[in-house]
Amino acid sequence: MDGSVIIGFIIAGLIMSVGVLIWSNIEPVIACPLDAVSDTFVAVTASSTQNNLIMNLTADTTSNQVHSAGNTIVGERVVNTASLLYDQPIFGFTAKMIRTGSPTGNVTFGVFDSTGNLVHFFGNHSIAEISSVNIESIGKNSTAYRPTVGDVIGIQFTGGDASNRLNVRFQSQSFDGADSVRSTFQSGTWTDVANDFTFIIYVNASSASNAIDGNVNTYWQSGVPQEAGTSIYGDLGSTQQVMAVRIYSNNTSYIPATIRIFVSDDNSNFGSPVKTTTLSQSVGYQTVTLSNTDPPAGRYVKIEVDTWGTDKLWRVGEFSVHVVDVTDEGYGACANIKNTVWTVLSIAPFVLFFVLIGMFVVPRLM
Ligand SMILES: [Ca+2]
Predict the structure, then answer these.
(1) How high is the mean pLDDT of the chain?
(2) Is 134 in a helix, a strand, or coil?
(3) Cα dist. 216→35, 52, 198, 233, 320 in Å?
(4) Contacts of 60 (CB under 8 A, 6+ apart)
């Protein structure tokens, strides 16, 4: 065998070795989009369970008189379904009040209808308990009440007179037109007088599990007006690659402007957000993609308020994720391309080997 044949075999052997090395170590560089499956959480936890729905104004320099000869009820009237108070599970409120003179009788905290009838009782106090200086007084009931349009959350005092009366503090800013309106009841008629009483309304947050029950009409509700950090997070039960987050909103008034999304392997250290995104202010599902090719991995997925556009609570009807489909290793059409490239790469050394045999060996044998 002459030298060129031997050199030919050596070259062919080297090419084959390199080919085998490529075959065993290198993936063809093609970014295949991964295939996803929907997954939901085995449990969800929210940042708030019971909180205070604080009226949106803060100054309280003046007060409404309440006594038998004037207004007998004062309160916040639910103007329409866009009201901050509409359909909220309210179980009580705190009011700031002072007493003038020496009135006698009881002060009732409750919800009143359009004709001034008490429709839900929160609690009452003897007016003698209310001192002559500003105090905060609380009426609470373990049963929540969901006000409808026309209801008034307020205070009734039917005793006293113009000189011996109750004064309920309200706020000097003008009514913002967006929520409830200060209203007074006298001689069988409610009169809206704009701006707000200095009330702190107590609202129950609804159960977080409502966000994973498969029913878009049931929802988790935050219990506090949207603020940075108000959150809900789910437990996938095991670490998964999270490609997208899916949220259902069932009311346009209860959607943050932007949210932050976190993926973590434990339920306390979520680190930096993997995505901050703007939400569509519309009813329905919206899916926020994290990555189709390199999704973050973790067991817990948290969404929290980043910025908000209204003073409303946050409602999440359904909360789920898309994770990498580990049963589908091929990743669809892209994988066919990937496999073709792979096949070409892996058989190339053998083709070259036989070409070299043809070039160097066959001519010697003929
Ligand atoms: Ca639900």
Answers:
(1) 84
(2) coil
(3) 25, 26, 35, 18, 12
(4) 96, 169, 170, 171, 172, 198
Class of domain 36-49+211-324: mainly beta
Q: Residue 56, class by beta-carbon neighbours within 10 Å (0-12 exposed, 13-18 middle, 19+ buried)?
A: middle
φ/ψ bin of 163: left (φ > 0), alpha (ψ from -120 to 50), beta (otherwise): alpha
Q: Report how far ligand 1's centroid is from the alpha carbon of 62 (Å).
A: 43
In angstroms, what is the span from residue 212 Cα to ligand 1's centroid?
A: 6
List, for residues 243-265, the tens digit of each pLDDT value: 999 999 998 878 999 999 999 99
The architecture in CATH of the region 51-203 reads: Sandwich (2.60)
DSSP-based three-state secondary structure for 40: coil
Q: How much is the pLDDT for 20?
A: 66
Asked if the model's pLDDT at residue 56 lies above 50, the reply is: no
pLDDT score, position 191: 95
- Separation of CA 250 and ligand 1 centre (Å): 9
Does pLDDT of 317 surpass 90?
yes
Mean pLDDT of 150-169: 94
Ranges of each domain in the chain: 36-49+211-324, 51-203
Q: How far is the CA of 215 from the centre of ligand 1 (A)?
A: 4
CA–centroid distance, residue 248 to ligand 1 (Å): 8
Residue 237 burial (CB count, 10 A): 12
Ligand 1 midpoint to CA 245 (Å) = 15
Q: How far is the CA of 107 from the centre of ligand 1 (A)?
A: 40
pTM for this entry: 0.61
CA of 213 to the centre of ligand 1 (A): 5
Q: Please count the other Cβ atoms lying within 10 Å of the Cβ belonging to residue 185.
A: 22
Q: Do 276 and 188 touch, CB atoms closer than 8 A? A: no
